[in-house]
């Protein structure tokens, strides 16, 4: 408040602050469900770990687009949101590899 002049007036308000905090918390809450969603999609056979690995570069681009949307127009905040999302994506790939449905082999073929 001490930096305000006649031309520059601080526009601080509780409602704007709460709106920002709620938006960021909601966005982080949704985004941190990424490994669970990928686990579910892998378990039902919609996603394969190879698909996730092959399209990693597009996923990183999408991650930074989402980070730009949910954060204020600040590159540092965008990177601070993007890096954990990339780490979560890599964890999702590992989880997907662990829970991947493996084809069931015929037991008769094993006996021959």
H/E element sequence: HHHHHH
**Shape summary:** elongated
Radius of gyration (Å): 22 Å
- Our estimate of the beta-strand percent is under 5%
| Overall pLDDT level | 82
Question: Unreliable segments (pLDDT under 50, ≥5 consecutive)?
Answer: none
The residue fraction in helices comes out at over 70%
Largest sheet: none
DSSP, total strands: 0
Total count of domains: 1
State the end-to-end CA separation. 83 Å
Note the total helix count: 6
Q: What structural category do the secondary elements indicate?
A: mainly alpha
3D structure, described in words:
This protein has one domain. It has helices at 14-31, 34-43, 49-54, 56-70, 75-99, 107-111. By secondary structure, it is mainly alpha-helical.
List keywords for this structure.
112 residues; 6 helices; mainly alpha
Fold topology:
Elements: H1 14-31, H2 34-43, H3 49-54, H4 56-70, H5 75-99, H6 107-111
Task: Give a short summary of the structure.
The protein has 112 residues and is mostly helical. The protein has helices at 14-31, 34-43, 49-54, 56-70, 75-99, 107-111. The protein has one domain (16-100).
